[in-house]
Amino acid sequence: MERLGYGTGVGVYLMERSPRISGEMRSPWAIKKISKLRDTKKTYVVRLEHEAKILKQLNHPNIIGFRGFGKPGSDAAYLAMEKASGCLGDLIEKRFDEFVNNCETEIIPASDPFPAEKILKVAEDVAKALTYLHDEVKMIHGDMKSANVLVFGDFETIKLCDFGVSRKIREDGTIEGDYVGTEIWSPLEIARKQRSLPHEPITAKVDIYPYGLTLFEMISLKPPHLPTVEDAYGSDETFDEETFEDTLAECIGTRPMLPDIEFDSSYHKILALFFCCTEESPLQRPDARDILKVFTEDELVTACSKVTI
User: Fold this and answer.
1) Given Cys at both, which of 12, 70, 149, 273 links 5, Cβ 3.0 to 4.6 Å?
2) CA–CA dist 26, 15 (Å, integer)
3) Where would I find the Protein kinase domain in this sequence (predicted)?
4) Domains and CATH numbers, the chain
């Protein structure tokens, strides 16, 4: 099968399905299965089974559709899902490569953001999915980032995927178990908890910070807290791994700096969302349901009370 993508311990493959007896064509599926070379296969089998159980109970137009689950052995499993046109993370990387390769000057510009309407489409559809998860299912996604956002068509529909580390939300608003999302997208309260430092409660707001960073990725064409386009292509300094790791650790949970470019008015709402969602204190971040009001009301007062539009 053709490989569509990969993640930690897993690969995603295209499964073309044969036509029905009537001759009607059937849509292809995306099959996620454990990587053959993983030494800890059983750990990922448990995680994939956990994801399948969660995905099977979810029913929302902005969450990837469950198609089936199989466990042929103790160290083997697969999850079948609807197939998307592409992954947002891959589209960001492709745009970055095209941007750099097509640059006709020696000085690389700061960035070439996605059109505002596409960023707003991602922002709205993902906010719908998070509102459903947080308010109805009482669950966090747990690993929000561009790699876990799927695009259908030319940004016609956006869906969340990868629920392998999702956690339930208790009645008091805190989450069950440990948050194990990708480090550079982790909010400050998680970074402080992992260092055994005083921290604010771990709530559904842990999904809101990386939601803001996902918008940042579409603006900057890079993951948060990593070198800018200019740094990556214009620096002659020798790379120091230890210094880089120390600097990166200090940045986790903070608001990354936007690229030094001029934004027209079409990006106004996007920038407001980015700023209010990446507040270091979870108490200052909006809820997913409040973010949705940005797309149904004329003002951002409810979601981003400190940001003037």
Assistant:
1) 12
2) 11
3) 1-301
4) 3-82 (3.30.200.20), 86-293 (1.10.510.10)
Helix, strand, or coil (residue 180): coil
Q: Which residues pair with 7 in a beta bridge?
A: 10
Half-sphere exposure of 46 (CA within 13 A, CB side): 4
Structural contact between residues 216 and 258, judged by C-beta atoms closer than 8 angstroms:
yes
- In 3D, which of 190, 228, 227 has the Cα closest to residue 209? 190
Whole-number Cα distances in Å, 246 to 198, 252, 294: 20, 10, 37
Tokens linked to 209: 């910070």
Provide the β-strand partners of residue 5.
Answer: 12
C-alpha 106/C-alpha 114 separation (Å) is 22
pTM of the model: 0.86
Provide the H-helix boundaries in the chain.
Answer: 41-57, 88-101, 116-131, 188-194, 205-220, 229-234, 241-251, 268-277, 288-293
Residue with tokens 């409810």: 302
Rounded to an integer, what distance in angstroms lies between the CA atom of residue 257 and that of residue 227?
10
Place of tokens 């308010």: 135
* CA distances, 280 to each of 106, 113, 217, 222 (Å): 37, 24, 18, 20
State residue 307's pLDDT score.
46
For the chain of 309 residues, list the mean pLDDT of each consecutive stretch of 10.
67 70 68 68 81 95 93 78 93 90 64 93 98 98 97 97 95 94 95 92 97 98 79 54 72 93 94 97 96 78 52
The two structure tokens encoding residue 59: 């029913």
Q: Tokens standing for 297?
A: 């009301």
Distance, CA of 286 to CA of 306 (rounded, Å): 11
Give the catalytic positions in this structure: 143
187 close to 282: Cβ distance less than 8 angstroms: yes
Q: Which DSSP state fits 18?
A: P
SS3 assignment, position 37 = coil
Rounded (10°) CA dihedral 84, 5, 28, 41: -120
pLDDT confidence of residue 308? 43
